[in-house]
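quick one, 306 residues, struct below
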Amino acid sequence: MSLTSRWLIVEEGPNPSTDYFILPFLTDMRVSVERVNFHELANEERLQDSNLIFVRYLPFKWQSLLNKNLEKISGIYFFIDDDLFDWQAFSSMPFRYQAKIFRYSWLRQRWLKSVGAQLWVSTHYLQNKYVKWAPKLIKPKPLIDSTESCLTVFYHGSASHQEDIQWLRPVIQEVLKHNPRLTFEVIGNASINRLFGSMPRVQVLHPMNWPNYLSMLQKPGRTIGLAPLLDLPFNRARSHTKFFDITQAGAVGIYAAGDIYEKVVYHRKNGLLLAMDPALWVDGILSLAEDDALRESLLAEAKKCL
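---
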Protein backbone atom coordinates (compact mmCIF):
# COMPACT_ATOMS: atom_id res chain seq x y z
CA MET A 1 0.00 0.00 0.00
CA SER A 2 1.44 3.33 -1.06
CA LEU A 3 0.81 6.03 1.52
CA THR A 4 2.04 8.82 -0.72
CA SER A 5 -0.16 8.19 -3.77
CA ARG A 6 -3.66 9.44 -4.30
CA TRP A 7 -6.76 7.51 -3.32
CA LEU A 8 -9.99 7.37 -5.31
CA ILE A 9 -13.06 6.20 -3.43
CA VAL A 10 -15.47 4.77 -5.99
CA GLU A 11 -19.02 4.61 -4.61
CA GLU A 12 -22.60 4.56 -5.81
CA GLY A 13 -23.13 7.87 -4.01
CA PRO A 14 -22.79 9.26 -0.48
CA ASN A 15 -23.30 6.35 1.91
CA PRO A 16 -22.67 5.25 5.52
CA SER A 17 -20.11 2.62 4.51
CA THR A 18 -17.77 5.29 3.20
CA ASP A 19 -18.45 7.76 5.98
CA TYR A 20 -18.07 5.34 8.89
CA PHE A 21 -15.31 3.09 7.60
CA ILE A 22 -13.36 4.25 4.55
CA LEU A 23 -13.08 8.01 5.04
CA PRO A 24 -12.01 7.84 8.71
CA PHE A 25 -9.42 5.16 7.88
CA LEU A 26 -7.96 7.13 4.97
CA THR A 27 -8.14 10.38 6.94
CA ASP A 28 -6.02 8.80 9.66
CA MET A 29 -3.51 7.80 6.97
CA ARG A 30 -3.28 11.48 5.94
CA VAL A 31 -3.42 10.68 2.23
CA SER A 32 -4.99 12.62 -0.63
CA VAL A 33 -8.57 11.40 -1.07
CA GLU A 34 -11.10 11.99 -3.82
CA ARG A 35 -14.63 10.59 -3.99
CA VAL A 36 -16.15 9.64 -7.35
CA ASN A 37 -19.44 7.98 -8.19
CA PHE A 38 -20.17 5.08 -10.50
CA HIS A 39 -21.06 7.35 -13.41
CA GLU A 40 -17.92 9.49 -13.10
CA LEU A 41 -15.29 7.43 -14.88
CA ALA A 42 -11.76 8.60 -14.14
CA ASN A 43 -9.42 9.58 -16.95
CA GLU A 44 -5.89 8.24 -17.31
CA GLU A 45 -4.38 11.20 -15.45
CA ARG A 46 -6.53 10.56 -12.38
CA LEU A 47 -5.73 6.85 -12.46
CA GLN A 48 -1.98 7.35 -12.65
CA ASP A 49 -0.37 6.17 -9.38
CA SER A 50 -3.76 6.06 -7.65
CA ASN A 51 -5.15 3.51 -5.23
CA LEU A 52 -8.80 2.72 -5.94
CA ILE A 53 -11.13 1.54 -3.20
CA PHE A 54 -14.52 0.27 -4.37
CA VAL A 55 -17.18 0.53 -1.69
CA ARG A 56 -19.44 -2.54 -1.80
CA TYR A 57 -19.94 -2.52 -5.57
CA LEU A 58 -17.90 -2.59 -8.78
CA PRO A 59 -19.74 -1.62 -12.00
CA PHE A 60 -18.72 -3.36 -15.20
CA LYS A 61 -17.66 -0.13 -16.92
CA TRP A 62 -15.20 0.55 -14.08
CA GLN A 63 -13.88 -3.01 -14.40
CA SER A 64 -13.34 -2.44 -18.13
CA LEU A 65 -11.57 0.85 -17.44
CA LEU A 66 -9.21 -0.79 -14.97
CA ASN A 67 -8.44 -3.65 -17.35
CA LYS A 68 -7.10 -1.09 -19.81
CA ASN A 69 -5.06 0.79 -17.20
CA LEU A 70 -3.79 -1.79 -14.72
CA GLU A 71 -0.17 -0.75 -15.19
CA LYS A 72 -0.96 2.82 -14.13
CA ILE A 73 -2.73 1.93 -10.88
CA SER A 74 -0.95 1.56 -7.54
CA GLY A 75 -3.56 -0.73 -5.99
CA ILE A 76 -7.15 -1.96 -6.10
CA TYR A 77 -9.19 -2.50 -2.94
CA PHE A 78 -12.74 -3.73 -2.37
CA PHE A 79 -14.66 -3.02 0.85
CA ILE A 80 -17.67 -4.98 2.11
CA ASP A 81 -19.69 -4.42 5.26
CA ASP A 82 -22.27 -7.08 4.40
CA ASP A 83 -21.72 -10.63 3.16
CA LEU A 84 -21.89 -9.78 -0.54
CA PHE A 85 -19.89 -12.77 -1.79
CA ASP A 86 -22.08 -15.62 -0.50
CA TRP A 87 -25.28 -16.19 -2.46
CA GLN A 88 -26.88 -18.01 0.47
CA ALA A 89 -26.31 -15.00 2.72
CA PHE A 90 -28.42 -12.65 0.60
CA SER A 91 -30.80 -15.07 -1.14
CA SER A 92 -33.68 -14.06 1.16
CA MET A 93 -33.36 -10.38 0.32
CA PRO A 94 -35.88 -8.65 -2.00
CA PHE A 95 -35.25 -9.71 -5.59
CA ARG A 96 -34.06 -6.30 -6.80
CA TYR A 97 -31.53 -6.10 -3.98
CA GLN A 98 -30.37 -9.64 -4.73
CA ALA A 99 -29.91 -8.74 -8.39
CA LYS A 100 -27.89 -5.66 -7.49
CA ILE A 101 -25.55 -7.59 -5.18
CA PHE A 102 -25.20 -10.39 -7.71
CA ARG A 103 -24.36 -8.00 -10.56
CA TYR A 104 -22.06 -5.55 -8.81
CA SER A 105 -20.41 -7.67 -6.09
CA TRP A 106 -20.82 -11.45 -6.33
CA LEU A 107 -19.85 -11.60 -10.01
CA ARG A 108 -16.72 -9.54 -9.38
CA GLN A 109 -14.95 -11.93 -6.98
CA ARG A 110 -12.95 -13.86 -9.57
CA TRP A 111 -11.81 -10.72 -11.38
CA LEU A 112 -10.82 -8.97 -8.15
CA LYS A 113 -8.66 -11.91 -7.15
CA SER A 114 -7.13 -12.15 -10.62
CA VAL A 115 -5.81 -8.56 -10.42
CA GLY A 116 -4.56 -8.94 -6.86
CA ALA A 117 -7.18 -6.69 -5.28
CA GLN A 118 -7.09 -6.51 -1.49
CA LEU A 119 -10.29 -7.20 0.39
CA TRP A 120 -11.27 -4.86 3.23
CA VAL A 121 -14.02 -5.94 5.63
CA SER A 122 -16.00 -4.41 8.46
CA THR A 123 -16.22 -7.29 10.97
CA HIS A 124 -14.25 -10.20 12.40
CA TYR A 125 -16.98 -12.48 11.05
CA LEU A 126 -16.23 -11.44 7.46
CA GLN A 127 -12.49 -11.50 8.15
CA ASN A 128 -12.71 -15.10 9.34
CA LYS A 129 -15.10 -16.22 6.61
CA TYR A 130 -12.87 -14.95 3.81
CA VAL A 131 -9.57 -15.68 5.56
CA LYS A 132 -8.07 -17.19 2.38
CA TRP A 133 -8.26 -13.71 0.81
CA ALA A 134 -6.29 -12.27 3.76
CA PRO A 135 -8.78 -9.44 4.30
CA LYS A 136 -7.93 -6.30 6.25
CA LEU A 137 -10.29 -5.37 9.08
CA ILE A 138 -11.44 -1.72 8.97
CA LYS A 139 -13.04 -0.51 12.18
CA PRO A 140 -15.83 2.09 12.12
CA LYS A 141 -15.57 5.49 13.69
CA PRO A 142 -17.47 8.77 13.34
CA LEU A 143 -15.95 11.03 10.75
CA ILE A 144 -17.53 14.20 12.10
CA ASP A 145 -16.18 15.64 15.33
CA SER A 146 -19.02 14.98 17.77
CA THR A 147 -18.00 18.03 19.81
CA GLU A 148 -19.00 20.33 16.94
CA SER A 149 -22.78 20.31 16.61
CA CYS A 150 -24.60 20.68 13.33
CA LEU A 151 -26.98 23.55 12.60
CA THR A 152 -30.23 22.89 10.77
CA VAL A 153 -31.46 25.31 8.12
CA PHE A 154 -35.03 24.60 7.04
CA TYR A 155 -37.74 25.56 4.59
CA HIS A 156 -41.23 24.27 5.30
CA GLY A 157 -43.16 25.17 2.17
CA SER A 158 -46.20 23.31 0.87
CA ALA A 159 -46.90 22.15 -2.68
CA SER A 160 -47.99 25.70 -3.53
CA HIS A 161 -44.40 26.88 -3.05
CA GLN A 162 -42.79 24.90 -5.89
CA GLU A 163 -41.27 27.96 -7.59
CA ASP A 164 -39.81 29.19 -4.29
CA ILE A 165 -38.29 25.77 -3.61
CA GLN A 166 -36.77 25.68 -7.09
CA TRP A 167 -35.28 29.13 -6.50
CA LEU A 168 -33.88 28.03 -3.17
CA ARG A 169 -32.07 24.93 -4.46
CA PRO A 170 -28.84 26.62 -5.72
CA VAL A 171 -28.75 28.73 -2.56
CA ILE A 172 -28.80 25.60 -0.40
CA GLN A 173 -26.26 23.87 -2.60
CA GLU A 174 -23.86 26.77 -2.09
CA VAL A 175 -24.24 27.07 1.68
CA LEU A 176 -23.85 23.32 2.22
CA LYS A 177 -20.68 23.41 0.15
CA HIS A 178 -19.16 26.23 2.22
CA ASN A 179 -20.19 25.16 5.73
CA PRO A 180 -20.01 21.42 6.57
CA ARG A 181 -21.79 22.07 9.89
CA LEU A 182 -25.01 22.99 8.11
CA THR A 183 -27.82 20.57 7.29
CA PHE A 184 -30.98 21.37 5.36
CA GLU A 185 -34.53 20.23 6.06
CA VAL A 186 -37.39 20.62 3.60
CA ILE A 187 -40.92 19.25 3.32
CA GLY A 188 -41.90 17.71 0.03
CA ASN A 189 -42.90 14.76 -2.10
CA ALA A 190 -40.84 12.52 -4.41
CA SER A 191 -40.14 15.39 -6.83
CA ILE A 192 -38.59 17.46 -4.04
CA ASN A 193 -36.56 14.45 -2.97
CA ARG A 194 -35.21 14.17 -6.51
CA LEU A 195 -34.53 17.90 -6.63
CA PHE A 196 -32.25 17.74 -3.59
CA GLY A 197 -31.18 14.12 -3.94
CA SER A 198 -27.64 14.83 -5.13
CA MET A 199 -26.83 17.10 -2.18
CA PRO A 200 -25.25 15.97 1.07
CA ARG A 201 -26.87 16.61 4.45
CA VAL A 202 -30.41 17.18 3.16
CA GLN A 203 -33.48 15.67 4.81
CA VAL A 204 -36.78 15.68 2.94
CA LEU A 205 -39.74 15.27 5.29
CA HIS A 206 -42.99 13.76 4.09
CA PRO A 207 -45.91 16.24 4.01
CA MET A 208 -48.02 16.10 7.17
CA ASN A 209 -51.26 17.48 8.52
CA TRP A 210 -51.38 20.64 10.61
CA PRO A 211 -51.54 19.03 14.10
CA ASN A 212 -48.56 16.82 13.30
CA TYR A 213 -46.65 19.78 11.91
CA LEU A 214 -47.28 21.84 15.05
CA SER A 215 -46.09 18.93 17.17
CA MET A 216 -42.93 18.63 15.09
CA LEU A 217 -42.17 22.35 15.55
CA GLN A 218 -42.03 21.87 19.32
CA LYS A 219 -39.05 19.52 19.00
CA PRO A 220 -35.73 21.39 19.31
CA GLY A 221 -32.94 21.30 16.78
CA ARG A 222 -33.75 23.87 14.12
CA THR A 223 -31.55 26.95 13.84
CA ILE A 224 -32.35 29.05 10.75
CA GLY A 225 -35.71 29.14 9.01
CA LEU A 226 -36.08 30.38 5.45
CA ALA A 227 -39.03 32.20 3.91
CA PRO A 228 -38.22 33.14 0.30
CA LEU A 229 -41.06 34.61 -1.72
CA LEU A 230 -40.85 35.23 -5.43
CA ASP A 231 -42.93 38.02 -6.95
CA LEU A 232 -45.64 35.75 -8.36
CA PRO A 233 -49.41 36.36 -8.57
CA PHE A 234 -50.19 33.59 -6.07
CA ASN A 235 -47.53 34.79 -3.64
CA ARG A 236 -48.84 38.34 -3.53
CA ALA A 237 -51.83 37.24 -1.48
CA ARG A 238 -49.82 35.41 1.18
CA SER A 239 -49.55 36.48 4.81
CA HIS A 240 -46.55 36.50 7.13
CA THR A 241 -47.51 33.34 9.07
CA LYS A 242 -44.15 31.69 8.34
CA PHE A 243 -42.68 34.16 10.82
CA PHE A 244 -44.73 32.40 13.50
CA ASP A 245 -43.75 28.90 12.28
CA ILE A 246 -40.05 29.73 12.30
CA THR A 247 -40.11 31.46 15.67
CA GLN A 248 -42.17 28.69 17.32
CA ALA A 249 -39.52 26.26 16.06
CA GLY A 250 -36.96 28.18 18.12
CA ALA A 251 -35.18 29.40 15.00
CA VAL A 252 -34.16 32.72 13.50
CA GLY A 253 -35.74 33.59 10.18
CA ILE A 254 -34.47 34.97 6.90
CA TYR A 255 -37.38 36.49 5.01
CA ALA A 256 -38.01 37.93 1.57
CA ALA A 257 -37.97 41.71 1.66
CA GLY A 258 -41.27 43.29 0.66
CA ASP A 259 -44.71 44.20 1.92
CA ILE A 260 -45.61 40.78 3.32
CA TYR A 261 -42.83 40.21 5.85
CA GLU A 262 -42.03 43.85 6.52
CA LYS A 263 -45.28 44.00 8.48
CA VAL A 264 -43.66 42.02 11.29
CA VAL A 265 -39.94 41.60 10.59
CA TYR A 266 -37.39 44.35 11.26
CA HIS A 267 -34.03 43.71 9.63
CA ARG A 268 -31.34 42.61 12.10
CA LYS A 269 -33.72 43.20 15.01
CA ASN A 270 -35.98 40.12 14.96
CA GLY A 271 -34.86 38.49 11.73
CA LEU A 272 -33.19 39.21 8.40
CA LEU A 273 -35.02 40.82 5.49
CA LEU A 274 -33.27 40.17 2.18
CA ALA A 275 -34.03 40.94 -1.43
CA MET A 276 -34.56 37.84 -3.57
CA ASP A 277 -30.96 37.75 -4.74
CA PRO A 278 -29.40 34.28 -4.33
CA ALA A 279 -26.00 35.73 -3.43
CA LEU A 280 -27.53 37.77 -0.60
CA TRP A 281 -29.27 34.68 0.79
CA VAL A 282 -26.09 32.60 0.63
CA ASP A 283 -24.19 35.31 2.51
CA GLY A 284 -27.05 35.80 4.96
CA ILE A 285 -27.32 32.11 5.86
CA LEU A 286 -23.56 31.64 6.19
CA SER A 287 -23.03 34.77 8.29
CA LEU A 288 -25.99 34.01 10.55
CA ALA A 289 -24.73 30.46 11.07
CA GLU A 290 -21.41 31.83 12.33
CA ASP A 291 -22.86 34.46 14.67
CA ASP A 292 -24.33 32.79 17.77
CA ALA A 293 -24.82 36.08 19.61
CA LEU A 294 -26.77 37.64 16.76
CA ARG A 295 -29.02 34.58 16.46
CA GLU A 296 -29.79 34.69 20.18
CA SER A 297 -30.63 38.39 20.01
CA LEU A 298 -32.85 38.06 16.93
CA LEU A 299 -34.72 35.09 18.36
CA ALA A 300 -35.34 36.82 21.68
CA GLU A 301 -36.89 39.79 19.88
CA ALA A 302 -38.90 37.57 17.52
CA LYS A 303 -40.46 35.71 20.46
CA LYS A 304 -41.86 39.01 21.77
CA CYS A 305 -44.09 39.09 18.70
CA LEU A 306 -45.77 35.76 19.39
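The longest helix spans residues 162-178.
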